[in-house]
Structures are given as C-alpha cells and as structure tokens.
Amino acid sequence: MKVRNYISLLFCVVMLASCSKDFTERTSYDGEDSLRFLNASSTELENSGIVNIPVVFSSANGGTASVNISASSSDLEEGVDFMLLTTSLTLQEDSIASKSYRGNVEVMLVDNDVFTGGTTTIVLELSNPSIGDIGFSGPDNINSTYVLLVQDDDCPSRDIAGSYTTTTTGTSTDPCCPDAVTVEGTVDIVDNGDNTYTIFDWSTGLYQTFYEVYGVSSAFVASGGLNGVVSVICSDIKGSIPEPFETVTELSGTVDLDTGVITYTWINGFDDTATVVLTPQ
C-alpha cells in the first residue's frame, strides 16, 4: 500500500534535495568483491556518437581492481560500424554515497545514411578481473555482459514537442482506487535537444486523481514531481521514470507519424497501469 510512503513523500516535497540524499546514502555494500556493468542494456540511436556505459567495482574491503572489456556483434562490423574505445579499466571500491569509483566503457557508434529498418546488437563482456568476480555476486553473475541495442536513425521520425489534449484510462492496485478511472486534460512536451523529451506530468493527471489523498497535490505536480523524460526512436516512444512512491514506471508506445497522435501505456512497480492518448492541439 502506498500509504506507507506518505510521510516520506510529503517530506520530499518540502525538502527534496536532502531527502534524495538520504535515500542515496543509506545503503552500504558488504558482499563479495565484484566487477559488473551498472545496467544490463540500453538502446541508442546510430547517430549518438560516443556512448558511455558504466562499470562498477564493489568491495567490502576496498582496494582497486582492473578488468578487460571485449565487444562482439553478429550484425555490425567492429572498426566499420562501431569502435570499442575502452578495452580495460582500473577501478577503486564503489562508494554509493560519492559514486566516485565507477568507470565508463566508451563505444563509438559510426553513423551512415543507409536505412536498415531495424535494431542491431553489440554485446560487451567483462573478463580477466585482477580481483573478485565478474558480474554481481551470485549464481547468475548478473550484469557480467551488456547488450547495446543500436537503432537505425535513418528511419522516418517526428518532433513531438508541443501541447496536447489527453485521455487517460487506468487502474490502481491500491485499495483507494478499485475501479478503472478515465481523466482528460492537457499536457506539454518539451524537446531536451538530445533525442529525449520531457512530458510535464507523464501520468497526464491520473496520479493526482488517484493519490491526492497521499500527497500527490496540484502543487506537487506543478513543482515537477511528475515530469518524466522519454526517448523517441523512429515511431517508438519509451521511458523509465521514477514515480512518487519509490518505484520506477516503465512507459512505452508509438507516435503516429502522419497525425502526431501519441499512444503509450505505463506500469509502475505496484502494477498500477494506464493507457494514454495524446492528440496535438
């Protein structure tokens, strides 16, 4: 139930910076030494240039570690379609508070003007650690490899910045809201200039309708509490957006390249879900 997070939500509205800092610093690491990719995968446009992929060394005892990086692809040719700029890293103990002991693997994507009409894959792999294990400690060695999906940027696309009327229908797993609810309104989308956009209230009013009793007020929304960053690749829109009750909302959908109508669905960590239709004004 989201009521358990009500106090922390209200505190974050008043003192956002300090609350966020507390959440970040309250975790410590006491497991086995490991070197791993911070995430499992990402999708980048072909014209993104140099892509930085974080690698983390975690150790309860401190120290330093080195690791090698290799790349392979069944779709692309290294040296022609991409270049692995980082083949080794030396890292110190990862500190969650300072985030100062992480390194980046750099991959340069080579752009061309040939439309392949799909997504290609580059797999990065860590090997030869000087200390510890590859991948997060455990039987599955999580994040020992990284999948970089490269989306052809020569496909048709559309600038989605602008103002929209909205129709959103969703359901919540919280006892407050047992039935499907439909809300209508307006929303603005702003181009961030890096192939991403900010939606000013990605829930388009539904979160306030559902959870105003828990502190999701009009002031919270107006302060940017429900702003979300999404990417648009060809006609696909997607994003991973933090939501007020400490989970991440996954958003995905499509852009009609002819009409500009955007349709997406979102689902958060509590399995609240909704379908959103944005129509250009």
Notes on the protein architecture:
Residues 6-27 have low confidence and may be disordered. This protein has helices at residues 6-14, 16-25, 206-211, 218-222, and strands at residues 34-37, 41-45, 50-58, 64-72, 82-84, 88-92, 102-109, 119-127, 133-134, 145-151, 162-171, 181-191, 196-200, 227-233, 236-242, 248-255, 262-267, 273-280. With 281 residues, the chain is mainly beta. It is globular and about 55 Å long. α1 packs across α2 (16-25). Helix content is 11%, strand content 44%. The chain is built from four helices and 18 strands.
Write the layout of secondary structure elements.
Blueprint lengths: L5 H9 L1 H10 L8 E4 L3 E5 L4 E9 L5 E9 L9 E3 L3 E5 L9 E8 L9 E9 L5 E2 L10 E7 L10 E10 L9 E11 L4 E5 L5 H6 L6 H5 L4 E7 L2 E7 L5 E8 L6 E6 L5 E8 L1
Parallel strand pairs: 1-9, 2-10
Antiparallel strand pairs: 1-3, 3-7, 4-6, 4-8, 5-7, 8-10, 11-12, 11-18, 12-13, 13-14, 14-15, 15-16, 16-17, 17-18
